[in-house]
Design goal:
- The chain is 32% helix and 21% strand.
- It has 450 residues and is α+β, with helices and mostly antiparallel strands.
- The strands form six sheets. A five-stranded parallel sheet has the order 10-2-1-14-20, sandwiched between helices.
- Helix 1 packs parallel to helix 13.
- The longest helix is centred in the last third of the chain and has 24 residues.
- The chain is globular.
Length: 450
């Protein structure tokens, strides 16, 4: 083993941990990947329900997710086979008095100008407001001098009530999983910069046609295994201690230990703080207590003859009518073996958390029947509801997000909560994992030179 080779422990096999472990292995270091659950993937993982390989939540990636897509290719995957690529769109069922906004195949920014000209369900005032928003944001470089809430930003940019309801609010909740009144305008602008303000392909929406585990986590595990990395699943880390010889000792729930020269903590923020804080004084604790929001996905199985006109529709969320769904996806158009299966997503749910699963499924099925004008949708064959109660942190303005290099020398942080442009997304997790790995590698080279 070369003197420059380090033994590195990566705690957490979510998308951030897998990304960090792959990059560290590529750099020639020896990696031990420890994961508390029995499967890799973290909060974006495969679940087996009703003889289906489903996901714990319906996800959308963007063509702008360059690091995620690049890492998939490095692992031998082919993104063009993993996703159904759709142009940027916000399309409601015709019966819901919504809007129809569909990006064209023209180069940017003509693809959005054409979409705006062709858009239905928007008045001239609405279209002028959307054009004004895009023009002003571009002129500002998508950058605010002082962060504020998305709600305040929309007022400042003089957005119409209808455009706010049908486009900006749903986009904000879907992207940040945070209500507009609480959401960071700067982070929202960062997302829009890489979608509305980017190239046509970067603005494309990518719907997975395979389960989330096969998009990256399993390929990463296979890669690490082929390069003799140690992988410990069902192995929670209880404590990290500094040994007398300068190494780190990781104590696991199974009673075993793992020795490492350096450590990457790639868990959620709560567990990262649990492991890191005992090693620091209170004045050095850099991981705040975040507020979290849930995401609920309702799977409804119908007969195989049920097929939507499009792979996805936006839905009007109308609490006064118990219409809670925000988007519906036709899984049969993504997976041929899942004909008749619909997935309805509710980001940042509040009142629905008080409902029983039976009540929520009944109300969502009725919403689908009314919105899509198909009475058969009132009676699914079966339903399954999955709620990730701590799906993402609330992405508030001026949120304190820690750096990848922790306050403890030799320990690095990776996760979607660390400092970066994006909210809690898969791309944010991958970028953070890669950034933590690059910092560790660079620090190791400096120590050798010195």
């Amino acid at each position: 083993m070369a003197d420059s080779t380090l033994q590195i422990a990566v705690i957490g096999a979510g998308w951030a941990g897998c990304s960090a472990a792959v990059k560290l292995t590529q750099a020639g270091h020896t990696v031990c990947l420890l994961e508390a659950s029995a499967h890799a993937g973290g909060r974006a993982r495969r679940v087996d329900l009703q003889d289906y390989a489903l996901d714990n939540g319906q996800h959308i990636l963007l063509g702008a997710y360059r690091d995620s897509l690049a890492l998939m290719r490095e692992l031998g995957l082919h993104p063009e086979q993993l996703f159904k690529r759709l142009p940027l769109q916000m399309i409601y069922p015709p019966a819901t008095d919504g809007m129809h906004f569909l990006a064209s195949g023209w180069p940017a920014p003509l693809h959005l100008l054409m979409a705006l000209w062709r858009a239905r369900g928007l008045s001239r005032e609405d279209k002028q407001a959307l054009a004004r928003f895009s023009t002003t944001a571009r002129w500002m470089g998508w950058q605010l001098h002082q962060d504020c809430s998305v709600e305040e930003l929309l007022v400042r940019f003089e957005q119409t009530p209808r455009l706010t309801e049908l486009m900006w609010n749903p986009l904000c909740v879907a992207a940040l999983n945070t209500p507009p009144a609480l959401a960071s305008a700067q982070v929202f602008l960062n997302v829009l910069r890489d979608s509305l303000g980017a190239s046509r392909s970067a603005s494309d929406m990518l719907l997975p046609v395979h389960d989330l585990g096969s998009l990256l986590p399993q390929a990463a595990i296979d890669y690490l295994d082929s390069r003799a990395a140690e992988i410990r699943l069902s192995c929670p880390v209880r404590q990290i201690q500094k040994s007398d010889d300068g190494k780190w000792t990781l104590h696991t729930g199974a009673g075993s230990v793992c020795l490492a020269d350096q450590v990457v903590i790639a868990t959620d923020s709560k567990n990262a703080a649990r492991l890191l804080n005992p090693l620091t004084g209170p004045e050095f604790r850099s991981i705040p207590d975040y507020d979290y929001a849930a995401i609920t996905t309702i799977y409804l199985q119908y007969g195989p003859e049920i097929r939507l006109e499009r792979p996805m529709f936006a839905l009007r969320e109308l609490p006064e009518r118990a219409h809670w769904g925000q988007f519906v996806f036709d899984r049969g158009q993504l997976h041929t073996e899942q004909a008749g299966l619909l997935a309805v997503v509710i980001s940042a749910p509040t009142k629905t958390l008080e409902l029983t699963h039976e009540e929520l499924a009944t109300q969502v099925a009725l919403q689908l029947a009314e919105s899509l004008q198909n009475p058969a949708l009132q009676q699914p064959v079966w339903f399954q509801i999955i709620t990730e109660k701590r799906a993402t942190y609330l992405c508030r303005p001026n949120l304190n997000r820690p750096d990848n290099r922790s306050t403890v020398p030799g320990i690095y942080l990776a996760g979607d909560y660390t400092a970066g442009d994006y909210p809690a997304t898969l791309e944010a997790a991958v970028r953070s994992g890669i950034a933590a790995a690059h910092l560790l590698i660079a620090d190791a080279k400096k120590r050798i030179r010195n």
